[in-house]
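Fold in tokens:
===
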Amino acid sequence: MACLRVLLTLIAFLLLGHHTNAKNDAPCQLSKWNNGFNNFVKRHIRSGTPNSLNQNEWETYIKNNGGCDRPTQSFLHPDELEKVKAVCTNKGGKVYKDNLCISDQLFTFVTVRSEPGTCGIRSVRRETKHLILACEVLENQCVPVHFEGNSRDSKPSNNARGCQDPQTQGHAPSFKMTWLWLLSVLLVIIYGY
């Protein structure tokens, strides 16, 4: 009987661990983080960013507005907020992988790289690429919650589904999840725990 309890405890731990995973496996699922969109905007669509690529101006900006702890940061123009949000819809983005969508259009943004542990700026570059964003549902709307780097200069696939395609919404749980639930229910029924 003690062995059964250990087994059931292990199964419950695995099930709870699966539910608390921070990353969804498809875009436009219910977010596990209530502040995901606000944090995204605070980090990537700030007002008052320098208009130049001058390292001294960016160092001062980052020191005054926070972000010294992040070695790579990308900033989009605040006027593009609605266009950025559209990446998480059929009109503006395609499914990339996992909970990531890639923009149909190119975006221009500034990427600032700093020395780890300091605010010393190594480089400031203007880039034009397709955005890769994690998209999740908050307050009944699919919105960006994370900016993923696009170091390979990926482009959207013409064959990919739209980001908010009905097939990606309410994505079914994985087989592993279903199998674990079934196993735990069977053990409870068989052993009457």
User: Anything to note?
Assistant: Residues 24-168 form a domain with the P-30 Protein fold (CATH 3.10.130.10).
